[in-house]
Amino acid sequence: MVGTGYQQGEDAPSTGRILIFEIADEINEAQGEGEGEGEGEGEGEGEGEGGAAHAAANGPAAAATAGGGGDGGGPRRKLRLISAVEERGPVLALATLQGMLLCGVGSRLMAFNYRDGTLTASGFLVCGFLVCRIAALQHYVLVADLYQGLQLVQWKVDRKTEP
């Protein structure tokens, strides 16, 4: 999971994306070397976060090499983008809680469910400050800001039954 933020200038609000990647073993080593020649390979430059950013920029079909490279003899792995969601603010913090993805998007704490290859929003909380850090334990969420302090939030699932 990766959260991004992009400032489009002084007059425009910043935007962001939530990216979910899958780590997959490379099935055919020769096929992997032929694809995307020069991308994600080299003397350590362009690996790691740069490779993920490159894959995100090129859309869902793109993949970047990650880990296991070099002469180590281990399996080569690729990052494959499986879901991307545009947000109206920078995505600064991510955490998981009871199978959901919690995201700090600007001043909102948002909860997402991942089903059938898509992220769908299931709830949100306006915190009143810029969410910089999220920590989750059982059904409690601690939301932090750089200057304002902390908020402790309890997550309750409201299941309504039909008569």
Walk me through the structure:
With 163 residues, the chain is mainly beta. It has two domains: 2-6 and 14-83, no CATH class; 90-154, no CATH class. The protein is 9% helix and 48% strand. The chain has a four-stranded antiparallel β-sheet with strand order 1-2-4-3. Strands 5-6-7-8 form a four-stranded antiparallel β-sheet, with no helix packed on it. Strands 9-10-11 form a three-stranded antiparallel β-sheet, with no helix packed on it. The protein is globular, with a radius of gyration of 19 Å. The relative contact order is 0.16.
Provide a brief overview of the structure.
The protein has 163 residues and is mainly beta. It contains two helices and eleven strands. It folds into two domains: 2-6 and 14-83, no CATH class; 90-154, no CATH class.
What strand order characterises the main sheet? 1-2-4-3
Average pLDDT across residues? 76
Question: Are there runs of 5+ residues with pLDDT below 50, and where?
Answer: 34-66
Number of domains: 2
Distance between the termini: 39 Å
The overall strand count is 11
- What's the story with the biggest beta sheet? 4 strands, antiparallel
Q: In angstroms, what is the radius of gyration? A: 19 Å
Shape: globular
- Helix amount: under 10%
Secondary-structure-derived class: mainly beta
Characteristic key phrases:
mainly beta, single chain, 2 helices, 2 domains, four-stranded antiparallel β-sheet
Map the helices and strands.
Layout: E1 2-6, E2 15-25, H1 29-34, H2 49-57, E3 63-66, E4 77-87, E5 91-97, E6 100-105, E7 108-115, E8 118-126, E9 133-137, E10 140-145, E11 149-154
Antiparallel strand pairs: 1-2, 2-4, 3-4, 5-6, 6-7, 7-8, 9-10, 10-11
